[in-house]
Design brief:
This protein is of the alpha/beta class. It is built from nine helices and ten strands.
């Protein structure tokens, strides 16, 4: 049917249990329907290997290669499709002049791609020089993030990048920082639920300071602690448009809260500071609230969302 829809621009087939064989059928159709602009294939099983399916390892690659012929393709959503390393090997061999040159939005979130797949995806990203939005959350790339980051260096127009929940360690942070020096148009960056720690914040800080258009920064669940906050606050002065800062579940105590309180003066646009599930006690909370009040922030414009991870003092039971 797709082969007859020569003027089709938008195709949505999310949540249809399409497997690898279906991917091959789609690949054949996409090869003849080159007018596509927006394609949504979320929540299928395009990369799921089944022994009974012939040619399964190449099914996903065949799909991507066929889409490379859609010269006007701008957005592609492949979230939750069981895409793994073995199913992406052929991406490195994909050669087609102008392939994906118009692609601005790519989402591969919640695919178990892993380290093996990261270099293959990087080869694909290098062909997408006009990407604006990239979502690779929960893809288990771990140390492979450095390959993906190298692929993104060629995307200077990137405005939104989601790498949360990827087991990215502090050792890779310096590579992330190098990418940020190039992708200075970023407005949204999420590195939440990784393992950056305070060393990782140091690794990204120099590049982060170059992203003067950044509006939303998510760093929750990275164990950055008070030392990481101290480093981060020195960067905040260089982010005049930052409106949202996520630091939940980071082992931040009062010292970190005091540093943040001082840093509020350096963030004129900040309207939401997420600090839930930390160890900020009443003194630290008070410092933040007073600083916000001094700046004239009302409850409607500022949401500190400060809660504690520490347990409340419970009365002892008589023995």
């Amino acid at each position: 049917m797709l082969s007859k829809c020569t003027g089709l621009t938008d195709l949505g087939l999310a949540r249809n249990r399409i497997g690898p064989m279906g991917a091959l059928y789609l690949a054949d159709g996409f090869g003849k329907c080159t007018s596509l602009v927006n394609v949504g294939l979320q929540s299928n099983q395009l990369g799921e290997a089944r022994p009974s399916d012939s040619g399964v390892p190449e099914a996903f690659v065949s799909l991507v290669v066929s889409l490379a012929g859609c010269q006007n393709l701008e957005s592609l959503f492949l979230d939750e499709n069981s895409i793994e390393g073995i199913g992406t090997d052929g991406l490195q061999r994909m050669e087609r002049p102008g392939a994906f040159s118009a692609l601005t939005q790519l989402s591969l979130r919640q695919n178990p791609m892993g380290l093996e797949c990261a270099s293959n995806i990087a080869s694909w990203l290098r062909k997408c020089s006009d990407l604006r939005v990239v979502d690779l959350a929960a893809t288990a790339i771990g140390p492979g993030a450095e390959f993906v980051i190298e692929g993104l260096v060629g995307c200077p127009t990137l405005s939104s990048l989601n790498l949360e929940d990827n087991r990215i360690g502090w050792e890779t942070a310096a590579r992330v920082g190098s990418m940020l020096k190039v992708c200075t148009n970023l407005r949204t960056l999420s590195l939440a639920r990784n393992d950056l720690r305070c060393e990782g914040i140091g690794g990204i800080s120099e590049g982060l300071a170059k992203c003067v258009s950044l509006q939303c920064l998510q760093l929750g669940e990275n164990a950055i602690a008070d030392r990481g906050v101290e480093i981060l606050v020195r960067v905040l002065v260089k982010l005049p448009l930052l409106t949202e800062l996520g630091l939940a579940s980071n082992r931040i105590c009062n010292d970190g809260a005091f540093n943040l309180a001082m840093g509020l003066d350096r963030c004129p646009a900040l309207s939401c500071l997420e600090l839930c599930q930390n160890h900020v006690k009443s003194e630290g909370q008070k410092a933040l609230q007073e600083r916000a009040k001094l700046r004239g922030f009302g409850a409607a414009s500022v949401n500190l969302r400060i809660t504690n991870q520490s347990k409340p003092n419970l009365p002892r039971l008589n023995s």
